Amino acid sequence: MTANLYVQRNQPPGVPPLEVTGERTLPDVPAENYWYRRHLVVYEWIAARVGGMRVLDMACGEGYGSSLLARGVAGSPGAASVVGVDGNPEAHEHARLRYVASNLTFERGLVETWGEPGSLDAVVFLQTIEHVQDPQAVLEHFRSLLAPGGTLYMSTPNLLTLASPGAEKSDNPWHIKEYRAAEFRELCEGTFASVELLGLFHARKLALHQLALDLGWDRLHKALRITDSFYDRFTPAISVSDFKLAPAPLDKALDFLAICR
Predict the structure, then answer these.
(1) 22 falls in which pLDDT band (50, 70, 90)?
(2) Which residues lie below 8 Å from residue 18, measured CB to CB, with a gap of 6+?
């Protein structure tokens, strides 16, 4: 595969495309669509719960999630205000130029220091806690940003389904610490009094694909030499409906979503 397969396609005029590096997930990259939809389904779930609120999307990356939170989803209005914050200058510039709305702004800032105490109703922090050196300090900072009754929505991949069996970490060079469900809950409960954990799972055609893998599909498509032709069609066709959030079984989840108050 050539490198340009991992650069965003069809960006609006004047918006610089971003390249997949493994540090962030991007829309408009067909080969990355599985990971993009895996992130997007969680943003949609949160968007349905933060209508009319003051929201921070911390480590917002490309900006698609911040835009969704500002726009809202069917049956739920957008947030009153969304600030998408990221420390990467290329991602910030892309987001600022691509996603424009009256209730949406983008700022550059650090996870550990950005924001005013008590100024937010919700903090969204997805697939990033595994990247930070001092996660407890980050959670304490987020708690300080929340007004009374505010909520932190935080997700992270499940070590047990991301890494090789028995390993304490995957080979992702950007990750510092990956969590089991009990470890993630313990981290959250170190700062927040109320913690609910949900798991993200495959559904619909991804569940069927997993069943096929269990029955030997990997060997078959390689033997038939149809790997590229199959996945060139299958991966771009994945949608948010091919994932689901559920409370159990967490050990088998792809990712965890913590709702912390």
Answers:
(1) confident
(2) 7, 8, 24, 26, 62, 90, 91, 94
- List residues bridging with 158 in a β-sheet: 179
Asked if the structure places residue 228 within a domain, the reply is no
Instruction: Decide if pLDDT at 4 tops 80.
Output: no
Is 144 among the domain residues? Answer: yes
- What pLDDT does 23 receive? 83
Torsions phi, psi of 227, nearest 5?
-55, -55
Q: What is the CATH number of the domain that holds 81?
A: 3.40.50.150
Q: pTM for this structure?
A: 0.95
Express each pLDDT in 209-258 by its tens digit. Answer: 999 999 999 999 999 999 999 999 999 999 999 999 999 999 999 999 99
Domain count of the fold of the chain: 1
The strand pairing partners of 196, in sequence order, are 259
CB of 197 closer than 8 Å to CB of 246: no
CA–CA separation, 174 and 22 (whole Å): 8
Q: What is d(CA 26, CA 30) in angstroms, rounded to the nearest whole number? A: 10
Residue 3 CB-half CA count within 13 A:
3
Beta bridge partners, 244, equal 201
How would DSSP label each residue in 89-130?
Answer: HHHHHHHHHH--BTTEEEEE--TTT-S-TT-EEEEEEES-GG
Q: With beta carbons less than 8 A apart as the criterion, state whether 105 and 233 touch.
A: no
Residue 156 belongs to domain spanning? 24-202+244-260
Print burial letters for 34-53: b (CB count within 10 Å at least 16), e (below 16). bbbbbbbbbbbbbbeebbeb
Q: Are 168 and 130 in contact (CB under 8 A)?
A: no
